[in-house]
Write a structure and sequence with these properties.
Distance between the termini: 60 Å
Strand content: under 5%
Shape: elongated
Largest sheet: none
Order of helices and strands: HHH
Number of helices: 3
Radius of gyration: 18 Å
Length: 96
């Protein structure tokens, strides 16, 4: 069965966006790894609740402006932040 050309075009766009998201996340985690290393060197805690709250507010506003559900954006950020903190804790343990 032949796939509708418009459906194929849309799926190709989705695939390209997914690839871009993966590459952006990889770049983000390179930066957060450096932050984790710096925090470990300076004896700072892995989590920064004040920064996280500011980021949530900033990203909720961006999501609203982009017509993306702010609750979804917050959940997505929370998932990423949880993983970043896990990495920072591991870096801190390894630095001891």
């Amino acid at each position: 069965m032949a796939t509708d050309p418009e459906l194929s075009r849309l799926r190709d766009s989705i695939d390209n966006i997914d690839a871009a998201l993966i590459h952006l996340l990889a770049e983000r985690f390179k930066c957060t790894k450096a932050v984790g290393q710096l925090k470990a060197q300076k004896g700072m805690p892995p989590a920064d609740l004040e920064r996280e709250a500011a980021q949530i507010g900033r990203l909720r506003k961006l999501a609203h402006e982009a017509k993306l559900d702010p609750d979804f954006a917050e959940k997505f950020l929370a998932f990423i932040v949880k993983e970043v903190i896990r990495h920072h804790e591991a870096i801190r343990r390894d630095a001891r």
